[in-house]
Amino acid sequence: MQGLEREIATRLNQTVTSDENVLHKFIDAAGDLAVNLVVAVIILTVTWWAASWASRLVRRLIARVHGGGPPDVTLQGFAGSAARYLVMIVGLIAVLQQLGVQATSILAVLGAASLAIGLALQGTLSNVAAGVMLLLFRPYRVGDVIEVSGRTGTVRSLDLFITELTTPDNLKVVLPNGKIFGDVIVNLSYHSRRRADAIVKVDVKRDLNALMTALQARAAANPLVLPDPPPVVEVTSMSEVFVELTVRAWAEAGDVATVKADLMLAGRLIADGAETNLPTLPKPKEPARTQAKRKRPTLRDRLKAPD
């Protein structure tokens, strides 16, 4: 009987001891996990800050490469975005390693699943490749007005994955780089001068010579119309009912819309015999006053400067 009691007591002591060991191990594991989580959060915070800092640093370096001239905003945005994503990828790998996930394991899994990942991310990867090609060929830059995929707007940014446009009615349009690179791109800001074509349809019985002379005089009197080449009026279509006249006038790229609107309205009023109700001619824009930008001294200039 005493032997049985002794055996029961021994087993109870062993059970209590093992439970205590499990509890201690659980507490140690929880403590290690808490420390790793805190360190991971710190690494993630530093990574977020470092990514922004790296992006700003790359932008400043590109601006200094251009010297005193205007920096390439398109290259700045693209290179800054690439630097930010690179730092974030390195930081995420460091966070995973801190949480106990080995980088070799991550690379092995990525290598084994490279085909599946490539198929899943083929759209994203094509956007990155298209962004690089857009940066190399430069069909447009930040600030240009372009027409692509049925959208017209001003380019605000060119990123690794997307291009952001702002439409004339102040809408934000985000287009994937792959879709842009595979479509027809019309850069409305590439040339400093453009031609405005205003179409006017008049009755076939009207005096075309007098009408064409009045339209040409109206175009020549517009201060926004360039004198060289001079504006012309041509017959571009004719039927049994109407004659189509086209007024062609050259203007600065920023004045094309104003010139075209004035010619269309004036052409309609002149065709209807209401020459006395013509609107006033648009006024030319005053040139913006720009101060001479002081050139920053280079490192060579600083070394040559006397102490």
Order of helices and strands: HHHHHEEEEHEEHEEHH
Question: Number of helix segments?
Answer: 9
Mean pLDDT: 79
Question: What is the helix fraction of residues, given as a range?
Answer: 40-55%
User: What does the main sheet amount to?
Assistant: 5 strands, antiparallel
Proportion of β residues? 15-25%
What spatial order of strands do you see in the largest sheet?
A: 4-3-2-1-5
Shape: elongated
- Cα-atom radius of gyration: 35 Å
Query: For the terminal residues, how far apart are their CA atoms?
Result: 102 Å
Look at the helices and sheets and give the structural class. alpha+beta
Tally the beta strands: 8
Contiguous low-pLDDT stretches (5 residues minimum) are 290-294
Q: What do you see in this structure?
A:
The model is unreliable at 290-294 (pLDDT under 50). The longest helix is centred in the first third of the chain and has 64 residues, at 2-65. The protein is α+β, with helices and mostly antiparallel strands and 307 residues long. Strand 1 and strand 2 form a beta hairpin. A 5-stranded antiparallel beta sheet has the order 4-3-2-1-5. A 3-stranded antiparallel beta sheet has the order 6-8-7, with helices on one face. It is built from 9 helices and 8 strands. The protein has helices spanning 2-65, 73-98, 103-112, 114-120, 122-137, 177-181, 208-221, 256-271, 299-304, and strands at 145-148, 151-158, 162-166, 172-176, 186-187, 193-203, 232-238, 242-252. Helix content is 53%, strand content 17%. The chain is elongated.
